[in-house]
Amino acid sequence: MEHQNIKGEKVPSLGLGTYRLTGEDCVGAVSLALSMGYRHLDTAQMYGNEAEVGRGIGDSGVDRGEIFLTTKVWPSDFARDKVISKTRESLKKLHTKYVDLLLMHWPGDGVPLGETLGAMRELQEEGGVRHVGVSNFSPSLAQEASEHVDVFCNQVEYHVYRGQDALLDQARALDYLLIAYRPLSRGGVEGDATLHEIGEAHDKTAAQVALRWLVQQEKVAAIPKATGEEHLRANLDVFDFELSNEEMVRVSSLSR
Ligand SMILES: NC(=O)c1ccc[n+]([C@@H]2O[C@H](COP(=O)([O-])OP(=O)(O)OC[C@H]3O[C@@H](n4cnc5c(N)ncnc54)[C@H](OP(=O)(O)O)[C@@H]3O)[C@@H](O)[C@H]2O)c1
């Protein structure tokens, strides 16, 4: 596993996304992923699976301290008291004393940004949250957030068909992690001829090339969601090859 260095901390470049993973499938996927070497997990209050993610962590036997765990607050809960009560609930469900990263899931409307981020900072001060970040924020909104908190991350849709040049520049300038969600374009990269051709040269699949292209970029991590053993293993197996500069540019040119 490779890491990205953010504000002096090493964060695993590849994590497991858990949107739409529920029930025993979720418990099983989380536990299996951790047993394979995943050390970064992404959930959200809105996914309704925090208890299952927590059980998966417990079942795996992997030490909590080795795992980078993210959850997110939904915009309807952006008022101060709600942020605090909902996140305390998350900690109970996840069976943990802290999350490594707490995100605003989407930009809100109504509640001032400073109120929501202030509540997240309070949680940080009491030790329930290590880092605070945002998700689906434009560069200007992320800049505004950085006036209230030390933004650790902006989690956005980023994959070979969707460029994020402005946010990448900002991530490097502000030293935050750009977490690429939907990194496989929901499985849509599988049949891509260019990715397939590049993959053949490295004995990798199109999906593995799509992930490698992300994690090879400075300040970028990816959180593919996968259910079964085959996909979980394939997605983790992207740290034993490197794309050349020319291949990186070729993949970048796929974004429409
Ligand atoms: N912050 C936000 O607003 C936001 C929004 C969307 C997503 N997210 C996060 O990002 C995570 C990932 O995004 P996503 O779930 O939308 O899409 P994704 O990770 O791009 O794609 C998941 C799909 O790809 C399939 N897949 C996984 N590994 C594969 C492989 N090696 N080869 C071929 N297909 C493969 C999965 O199938 P199987 O399940 O059958 O393995 C699933 O159907 C989410 O789970 C969530 O944690 C965040």
Main features:
two-stranded antiparallel ribbon, 10 helices, alpha/beta, single chain, globular, 256 residues
Q: Rounded to an integer, what's the Rg over CA atoms?
A: 18 Å
Mean pLDDT: 97
Main β-sheet, spatial strand arrangement: 3-4-5-6-7-8-9-10
Q: What profile does the largest beta sheet have?
A: 8 strands, parallel
Order of helices and strands: EEEHEHEHEHEHEHEHHEHH
Give the uncertain stretches in residue-range form: none
Write a structural description.
With 256 residues, the protein is α/β, with parallel strands linked by helices. It is 42% helix and 18% strand. It contains ten helices and ten strands. The strands form two sheets. The protein has an eight-stranded parallel sheet. A two-stranded antiparallel ribbon has the order 1-2. A hairpin with a 2-residue loop joins strand 1 and strand 2. Helix 3 crosses helix 4. The chain is globular and about 55 Å long. The mean pLDDT is 97. The structure holds NADP nicotinamide-adenine-dinucleotide phosphate (NAP). NADP nicotinamide-adenine-dinucleotide phosphate is lined by residues 17-19, 42, 105, 135-136, 155, 181-187, 190, 207, 223-228, 231, 234-235.
List the helices and strands and how they pair.
Layout lengths: L2 E4 L2 E4 L3 E2 L5 H14 L3 E3 L7 H11 L7 E6 L6 H15 L4 E6 L8 H14 L2 E7 L3 H7 L7 E5 L7 H10 L2 E5 L11 H10 L3 H10 L4 E3 L6 H8 L8 H8 L4
Parallel strand pairs: 3-4, 4-5, 5-6, 6-7, 7-8, 8-9, 9-10
Antiparallel strand pairs: 1-2
Helix pairs in contact: 1-2, 1-9, 2-3, 3-4, 7-8
The structure holds NADP nicotinamide-adenine-dinucleotide phosphate.
NADP nicotinamide-adenine-dinucleotide phosphate binds next to helix 9.
